[in-house]
Fold this protein.
Amino acid sequence: MLKIARALRHVLKVCWLPLVFAIIFVVQNFLFNYWLKIEPGEFAGRRVAATAALGVLLYGPVLLVGKRLKYPYLVGVSLVPTAILSVEYLYYSYSGGFLQASALLYAGEGVAIIPTAKTLVNWRLAFFAAGLLAAIGSWIAAACSARFAANALHSDGWIAAAVNRRKFAVAGAVASLVLSGYGYLFLVERNDQENIANVFRHGQLYNAGGVVGKSGIVNFFLSDALALALHADKVNAADENFVQNFKAQQPPVVSDTDVGSLKWRNVIMIQVESLENAVINQKYNGQEITPNLNKLAKTGMYFSNYYSPVGPGTTADAEFMTLNSLFSLPNTVAFVQYAYDNYTALPALLKKNGYSTYSLHGDVPSFWNRANIYPQLGYEKWFSRADYTIPRDIGVYDLGDKDFFEQSLPKLEAMPKPFMATLITLTSHTPFELPADLQTLTIPDDSDLTWQQKGYLQTVHYTDQAIGEFIDQLKTAGLYDNSVVFIYGDHGSFTGIADALGVKNSVFPDLQTSQVPMIILAPHSKIKGKKTIPASHLDVYPTVADLLGIKPPQEVFGHDMVDGTDVVAVSRNLVSGTVNSVLTAKLAFHAGADGEFDDGTCLAMPGEKPLDMNACQSIYDAETNAVKASDIMVKGNLISPP
Ligand code: GP9
Ligand code: MN
């Protein structure tokens, strides 16, 4: 016992300095989450372990550097957490999102937010400089105090460390503390998640708040910086040439008869969570699943063969494709990876043409990194969770769609006209939870549906009511007649609902689950009727531009779907990124099971008559080139703002 106490005392005598700094660091990370209310309690154990590991990693090596470098090292290293914690604190207070390492590439543009940032400065920032102040203080104290200097470690640095057994012991201790801190996080996460890769890949991609909750903001920022440094998606001169040639070969956009037919109308986009086309015009147990949407589909123009070819970014990819008319990326999420880049997005184009532009969504702005990319897309303001009150918790995101729409209406009324507003719903998000009194579909106890499918039908039924009420509210508020409304599903439901309902509406069965409804409501116009031509999220942008009479930029890969005949719906292989299927009014192509063109299927449409593969070659080549050009433009930041 005595021996242990003596050993402990010895360790403390040697290691007290980095330990104090590591503890300060852990407390700083804790305060960051506590003050900003980022999962302060839920993941505290993981966060303490991960921040302690990083604290030891940052400050532990001070025991290995030479005597003269000791204090400069401490000051230099302390600058890193001080800067990250302070800047992230100000940025989160300002935007509700976390600054990514890639922001360093655009640091110059940050000047614009300095005046706002100044107003957010407060006494808490002093705590984020505690490590730095302590390092400077101990340097001064050491310089002044001979006793302090005498107690200081003596070493000749790394070379000496290599031959010094105690230094080996220190290096070993630092390494094991670091490994056990991160190891703990890894193990707990592995127990929580089915697939550990999701923790570090998708976990980081969609929910930065969760990552900061579990590992702390400094771990978040440094791992993001590491990922950026290791990122291999660089474009070269040949890629840039490819894009130039591709653009040069694109036929000019030809004006059609309805160009400008909805000039100056407000544009209201309603992006509905997990709304799959399979539930439209369908009954379950004798009840219409989406009676309001069915009615609206008859009032306006309904696209029954419309697709959402999302990648790992799901909702964010739906937004990305719809707002940019660019392809989503198969292996990463543009909203996260390329948030600070230039885009000629629809909100930006409309803003340039006299519109005010808004996004409305009931989640926190750090989710899907919206806080960082929205300004780049041209939204001048976005309303998020903090801008809504939650009268009762409904669904997994708390704010029910009815409350969301009800509270969004006055926001729309207050917007300078004309406006573009994108409303993104939440309640029909997995795991499809809804309080019992709001479950108004009758599903018999002996139903063959899975619990997930039952929940899905209930939440979609609820959201359908919410949309029906919202359209009525728009009418009452006098906003409906002078607007064009787009209602569409962001992506499929991943529940197998199409199979369960026996819906087979797509030429290729594997595309069925990515088929979502698109309804355009344009009162007092010719935009009516059912459209069976294949279309996708990429076609929204050129369609809106055409209807409003605004020339779209060249970086638009979709087509006018209201009266165009050259619309194409493309899906990609999410592993290789190659073109998986191409649907046009006349042809339907699907790659073989091996992803190859030659082993695929080519059909004449409508009618599905098998054709020789040659018949699909040119459309396949054209779309392969389009996908490649789009990817290069996104990855190489080759799009110029409007
Ligand atoms: C969260 C919501 C859901 O803000 O948009 O995103 P998802 O999980 O469907 O991609
Ligand atoms: Mn979604």
